[in-house]
Amino acid sequence: MKKRVISAVVALLISLPLVYIGGVPFYILAIIISLLAFKEILDLITNDYWIRLVSYINFLFLIGNSIIQKNFSSILDFKVLGIVLLIYGLLLLFNHKNKEFNVEKCFYLIGITLFLSTAFATLIIIRNMSLYYFIYIFLITIMTDTFAHSVGTLFGKHKINEISPNKSWEGCLGGAFFGVLISVLYYLIFINSEIDLLLLIFITLFLSIIGQLGDLFFSQIKRSYKIKDFSNIMPGHGGMLDRFDSVIFVALAIIYFINFL
């Protein structure tokens, strides 16, 4: 517990000022975090130096384009996407003798590159739009996760499934309730008090549920590879993907609701 608290405090002391300042300092922080998260997935897929190097370049290319363009449409810029897909195709072609890098792994790598770069690019763009919206996203996931754990520990009796044995339906419901309550209050006080309340509750509840599904999604990956955490970069917390699992799904989902908020 002591390690967990210390690592959390250190992470907050480093990240919060950079998030608040925004601009280049935030970009640097976001790129470092996204690269560390991407590395955790690469560590599960391949140890080949050249494959990893090309993957990092493709990932940075996608993230960098979104930072430069500063809009959601740039995330799936077909010119950039085409280059990335072409590079991965050539990588597979020139590594045809590498038995560990087959067609399946190549498409897995393409998928995870697009998946994570889209999510982190979305977070970067939202921070560019507004610090308050950025906080709203994290507040949903943090409050949902915190209260899901607390309520589940106190009242959890009905387990969800074998993917994450410690999670219960009681915890999920409690997390969603308090996550929505606190996030809605925050939104009304700091962002827009005139928004349609029912619409806000619906969107926030949807994002809270999506965040919990993101947690289960990454738990499924860890279960498939028989690992407890993606890494140990944050003692007591695990890796970047262990901390950003819910946020990644919420970032991908909020794109569809941003015009209503």
Q: What can you tell me about this protein's structure?
A:
- The chain is an all-alpha fold.
- It folds into 2 domains: 1-129, no CATH class; 131-261, no CATH class.
- The chain contains 9 helices and no strands.
- The chain has helices at 2-21, 23-45, 49-69, 78-94, 103-129, 131-155, 169-190, 197-224, 240-254.
- Helix 5 crosses helix 9 (240-254) and helix 6 (131-155) packs across helix 8.
- It is globular.
- The chain starts with a helix and ends in a 7-residue tail after the last helix.
- The relative contact order is 0.12.
Whole-number radius of gyration? 19 Å
Biggest sheet statistics:
none
The number of helical runs is 9
Name the overall outline: globular
First and last CA, distance: 38 Å
Low-confidence stretches are none
| Count of extended strands | 0
**Helix content, binned percent:** over 70%
Domain count: 2
Q: Quote the average pLDDT.
A: 89
Strand content: under 5%
Write down the secondary-structure element order. Answer: HHHHHHHHH
Q: What structural class results from the helix and strand content?
A: mainly alpha
Topology:
Elements (H helix, E strand, L loop, with lengths): L1 H20 L1 H23 L3 H21 L8 H17 L8 H27 L1 H25 L13 H22 L6 H28 L15 H15 L7
Quick overview:
The chain has helices spanning 2-21, 23-45, 49-69, 78-94, 103-129, 131-155, 169-190, 197-224, 240-254.
